[in-house]
Recover the amino acids of this structure.
């Protein structure tokens, strides 16, 4: 738990650095920046939840568990209120549930994994593991899809967008709805770096 | 209705065209309605499918709040020209994305959106307004409503298409009308031409009265039958006309023939009538002449015989007196005969004048009995009048008296000595009066009765001493008939004969009073001497001499004689006689002219003039009286009558 907090703090440190930088360039207040950040992550959480609707997981219906787990690896950037609100919803006839998991835990029963760890090796490991276990990998880290991730969230023009790596979803055995593909800004079909 | 007066061809055209136009219009209307419906349904289905697809495709954009992607998605509707507005509203009511078609920029969005939501509160429906169709589609994602899609389509295309269809329909309609008109003309001619031809034939026949004309026809339809019937009728008329003409010709011939016959008959009849009239006139003239010519010598004979009988200076011996009486009797009889013949001729020629009046029968009969009294006394015959005093008849007084006297004198003349003559009332009906005269003579046989009213048949009495003319009963019968009466006779041999007369009854109120005629009163004879001068104008010297003898010798008056009218008038002026006796048939100036002359001359105007003429016809007598003669005496002169008339004319002033 302490590690958790630490990591979180560290993350916050990163964030803070970014925020400060942003603040230095934009001249906006720290509080404004923080508020903006919170809003952005709540949108990202909603995006992650919405992805579940446009992607089909193989043998999902045959799973005994009544929960649709969305796992967060690394520090949790989302507000508690946002997650608890989304947890009341259902997708694919299952209850949405957000889980914080360690990089070393088994990926299943996760359907979506939000990777928020700065460590490249961990990230690569998870991407590799996702291919075996039909897991959708999502991250807001730059070049995530270029590095073999499935969906990469990014902000453009103060709006949250996403990229889809079709090769990655295909390798993971996931069917992505064309509707989702239509919304994706950039569709890449690149193999993950070995 | 105007259609009624149109020719059949136009009627047919009208009906055909009306039928085709109406059916075509109905069909077109049906098609247009179906089309509109189809178009609506199609448009709606199309819009709904578009909405479904768009909604489906919009889920991701809504989910990821990608307005650009959604707008891009909606903009794909620009391929469909009639969509002019589309909008996606999120479930929270906020506008997510929208599409503007052409000319939709002017929409006031917030108001328009709320009106859209109001129009379709429950989604997945469609709303049809006059020119726009709105569909709504709920956008769902995994069973969750995430928004609504509204698509508004303009229906102007529909109306444009509808217009095209209408134009097409109209063109087809016009073509159809044209074809229908041409066809109806073509086929109308087939129907109307025979009728027009027949009608023309009928007009021709009516105008020309040529019944040998025949209607032409080629068809065996109703019109053909009509024409055939018309032809048959014409044939019959022709036959009838021929028969009629034949009959007419025959009739005309007949009429001409009959008219000719009639004309000849009429001509013959006219000729016969003229002849008869001429003969009748000749007869009347002859009788009149005869009467005059006979009376003139009779005047001398009877006059002098009477004078002889009255001779006082040298009275005749008994034997001589007897002879003179015979002369007078024979003369009287001859005179009676002449009078009766004249009467008969008058009755037969219908010139007898009657004046019907109310007559008391009993009085009339009494008078007649008085007149024939001396005759009855002579034969010792009792005359019994059984009539009541209140019987009145309608008759001419003179003529009924003539009849009764005739019958009474017959009843006396042919009776036994000492017999009776009875007058009885035999009335049976209320309006008729009947009276009978019954004698007790020898009676008449049936054959005698049948000859009784024949002229100049005296039934054998001509061989007896009884004097008669043989025409008395005939005159009686004819006089009674003129007075609208009847005379009948019945007889029993050795018992007697009965004559019955029936006349119309008269009312008792205004019966004629007793007529007083001097001539009928022979008992009033007196011979007083008179002073005075009488002028007699007469061309016949025998008559002049006779009257001179009567006036001077018998009446002891002064006498002047003139041979003609001129001398007479001069003498009258010179001597101023008290009385003038005037013959009518005078040489040079006749009696009527002389009378006028006398009346005009002041010296002679007051002298009474008495006519003394042989013209004894009633017409002559009445003419004389109206001309102004004081009296009119007929020849032969009766001594007493002449003397009484002279005395009466002179009046009491001259009487001494």
């Amino acid at each position: 738990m302490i590690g958790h907090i630490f990591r979180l703090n560290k993350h916050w440190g990163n964030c803070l650095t970014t925020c400060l930088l942003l603040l230095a360039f934009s001249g906006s207040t720290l509080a404004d920046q923080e508020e903006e950040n919170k809003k952005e992550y709540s949108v990202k959480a909603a995006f992650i939840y919405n992805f579940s609707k446009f992607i089909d997981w193989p043998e999902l219906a045959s799973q005994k568990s009544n929960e649709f787990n969305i796992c967060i690896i690394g520090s949790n950037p989302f507000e508690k209120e946002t997650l608890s609100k989304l947890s009341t919803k259902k997708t694919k006839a299952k209850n949405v549930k957000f889980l914080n998991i360690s990089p070393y835990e088994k990926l299943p029963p996760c359907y979506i994994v939000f990777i928020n760890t700065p460590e490249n090796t961990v990230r690569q490991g998870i991407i590799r593991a996702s291919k075996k276990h039909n897991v959708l990998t999502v991250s807001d880290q730059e070049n995530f899809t270029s590095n073999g991730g499935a969906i990469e969230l990014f902000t453009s023009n103060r709006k949250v967008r996403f990229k889809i790596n079709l090769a990655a979803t295909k390798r993971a055995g996931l069917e992505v709805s064309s509707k989702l593909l239509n919304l994706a800004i950039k569709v890449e079909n690149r193999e993950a770096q070995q | 209705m105007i259609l009624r007066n149109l020719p059949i061809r136009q009627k047919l055209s009208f009906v055909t065209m009306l039928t085709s136009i109406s059916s075509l219009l109905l069909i077109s209307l049906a098609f247009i309605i179906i089309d509109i419906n189809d178009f609506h349904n199609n448009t709606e289905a199309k819009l709904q499918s578009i909405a479904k697809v768009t909604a489906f495709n919009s889920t991701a954009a809504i989910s990821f709040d990608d307005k650009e992607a959604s707008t891009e998605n909606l903009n794909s509707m620009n391929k469909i020209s009639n969509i002019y507005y589309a909008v996606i509203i999120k479930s929270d009511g906020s506008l997510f994305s929208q599409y503007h078609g052409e000319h939709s920029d002017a929409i006031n969005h917030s108001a328009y959106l709320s009106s859209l939501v109001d129009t379709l509160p429950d989604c997945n429906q469609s709303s049809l307004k006059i020119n726009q169709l709105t569909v709504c589609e709920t956008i769902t994602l995994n069973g969750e409503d995430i928004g609504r899609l509204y698509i508004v389509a303009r229906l102007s295309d529909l109306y444009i298409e509808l217009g095209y269809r209408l134009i097409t329909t109209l063109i087809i309609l016009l073509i159809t009308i044209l074809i229908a008109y041409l066809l109806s003309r073509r086929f109308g001619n087939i129907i109307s031409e025979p009728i027009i031809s027949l009608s023309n034939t009928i007009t021709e026949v009516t105008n020309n009265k040529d019944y040998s004309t025949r209607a032409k026809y080629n068809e065996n339809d109703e019109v053909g039958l009509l024409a055939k019937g018309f032809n048959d009728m014409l044939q019959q008329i022709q036959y009838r006309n021929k028969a009629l003409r034949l009959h007419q010709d025959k009739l005309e011939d007949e009429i001409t023939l009959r008219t000719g016959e009639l004309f000849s008959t009429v001509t013959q009849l006219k000729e016969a009538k003229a002849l008869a009239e001429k003969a009748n006139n000749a007869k009347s003239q002859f009788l009149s002449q005869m009467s005059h010519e006979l009376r003139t010598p009779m005047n001398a004979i009877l006059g002098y015989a009477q004078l002889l009988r009255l001779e006082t200076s040298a009275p005749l011996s008994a034997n001589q007196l007897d002879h003179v009486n015979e002369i007078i009797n024979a003369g009287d009889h001859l005179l009676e005969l002449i009078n009766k013949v004249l009467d008969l001729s008058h009755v037969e020629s219908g010139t007898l004048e009657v004046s019907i009046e109310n007559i008391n029968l009993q009085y009339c009969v009494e008078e007649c009995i008085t007149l024939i009294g001396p005759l009855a006394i002579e034969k010792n015959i009792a005359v019994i009048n059984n009539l009541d005093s209140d019987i009145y008849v309608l008759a001419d007084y003179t003529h009924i008296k003539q009849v009764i006297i005739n019958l009474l004198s017959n009843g006396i003349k042919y009776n036994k000595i000492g017999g009776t003559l009875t007058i009885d009332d035999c009335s049976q009906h209320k309006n008729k009066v009947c009276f009978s005269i019954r004698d007790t003579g020898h009676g008449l046989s049936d054959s005698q009765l049948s000859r009784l009213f024949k002229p100049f048949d005296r039934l054998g009495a001509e061989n007896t001493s009884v004097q008669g003319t043989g025409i008395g009963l005939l005159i009686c019968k004819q006089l009674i008939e003129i007075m609208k009466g009847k005379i009948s006779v019945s007889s029993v041999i050795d018992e007697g004969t009965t004559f019955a007369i029936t006349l119309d009854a008269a009312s008792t109120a205004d019966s004629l009073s007793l007529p007083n005629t001097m001539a009928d009163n022979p008992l009033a004879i007196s011979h007083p001497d008179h002073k005075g001068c009488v002028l007699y104008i007469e061309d016949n010297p025998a008559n002049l001499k006779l009257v001179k003898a009567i006036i001077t010798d018998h009446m002891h008056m002064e006498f002047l004689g003139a041979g003609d009218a001129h001398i007479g008038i001069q003498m009258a002026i010179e001597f101023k006689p008290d009385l003038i006796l005037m013959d009518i048939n005078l040489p040079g100036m006749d009696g009527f002219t002389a009378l006028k002359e006398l009346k005009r001359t002041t010296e002679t105007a007051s002298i009474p003039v008495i006519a003394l003429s042989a013209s004894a016809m009633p017409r002559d007598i009445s003419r004389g009286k109206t001309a102004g003669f004081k009296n009119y005496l007929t020849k032969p002169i009766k001594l007493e009558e002449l003397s009484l008339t002279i005395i009466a004319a002179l009046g009491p002033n001259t009487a001494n």
User: Anything to note?
Assistant: Confidence is low (pLDDT under 50) at residues 1-10 of chain A.
